[in-house]
Design goal:
The protein is α+β, with helices and mostly antiparallel strands. The protein has one domain (16-218). It contains 5 helices and 6 strands, in the order αββααββββαα. The strands form 2 sheets. Strands 1-2-3-6 form a 4-stranded antiparallel sheet. The protein has a two-stranded antiparallel sheet with strand order 4-5. The longest helix is centred in the first third of the chain and has 31 residues, at 16-46. The two termini are 39 Å apart.
């Protein structure tokens, strides 16, 4: 009788828990991204540049429509080259975040840690969409002019990667003048909080602060983590040595 060799085929089946976590974090990112874009599109197509709406009638919380060519909270880089460099940097950063988030998911990191990176990724994606596409799909917003039109017949106000980021949240909570006796700033006008920001900026800031406050162990070096694990193992071993153990053990059968 001839025994034919069997062909073994190995099929990789992703862990169900990993798939479930991936789905959750993906939906989490998409929801934040959707909220960010819905708010931006509404502001862009309903308000003129510089228009303000008081939130709940409170003048310290406003929807204030502005646009910027640069980074979060209205910060900007120099000229068109700075704008291009920033847009390309955002794309590279998002690619790295997606790659690193996949590594964290496969390593079964806590959902809290994944959510922090998800917030940062969603915020970065939201501002990338503005920079990459808004210039091609919207007409220009002009102070005192009509609201922008989506997909205008005459084309957008700019080209790919040269769109402007839409900002709208403005909270000038404190305003006044510094005391005259104060060095350097005596008598100068101050305003807190001056920056105008959007949902994407809020997501990025929340993600970073949550990492720092709630996941400080993430920044611990591998060597230090290894030392902590070894110390914990030694403590557990010492604790186990203090506990009474069964004196009777099953021995091998005599030959």
């Amino acid at each position: 009788m001839v025994i034919m060799p069997q062909r073994v085929i190995t099929i990789f089946v992703p862990n169900k828990n990993i798939l479930k976590t991936s789905l959750k974090i993906t939906l989490f990112i998409l929801v934040i991204l959707l909220i960010d874009q819905v708010v931006k599109i509404w502001v862009k197509t309903n308000l003129s540049y510089g228009d303000e709406i008081f939130i709940l009638g409170w003048d310290r919380a406003r929807i204030h429509f502005v646009e910027n060519n640069g980074m979060a909270f209205g910060l900007e880089l120099w000229g068109s080259w700075g704008k291009l460099i920033l847009s390309l940097f955002r794309i590279v950063a998002v690619s790295f975040l997606i790659y690193y988030l996949r590594i964290l998911i496969k390593s079964k990191a806590s959902f809290g840690l994944l959510a922090c990176f998800g917030l940062i990724l969603a915020g970065a994606l939201g501002n990338i969409i503005d920079s990459a596409f808004y210039g091609m799909i919207f007409s220009e917003s002009i102070p005192g002019g009509p609201a922008a039109v989506m997909f205008p017949d005459s084309g957008g106000y700019s080209t790919f990667l040269y769109g402007k980021v839409v900002d709208m949240f403005y909270f000038p909570l404190l305003e006044g003048n510094f005391p005259q006796w104060l060095p350097f700033w005596g008598g100068d006008h101050f305003l807190f909080f001056r920056p105008v920001f959007n949902v994407a900026d809020t997501a990025i800031t929340t993600g970073v602060l949550s990492l720092i406050v709630f996941h400080r162990s993430f920044f611990t070096s591998d060597e230090k983590k290894k030392q902590e694990e070894e110390q914990q193992l030694q403590n557990e071993t010492a604790s186990a040595g203090d506990k009474p153990t069964d004196a009777v053990h099953q021995e091998e059968d005599p030959a």
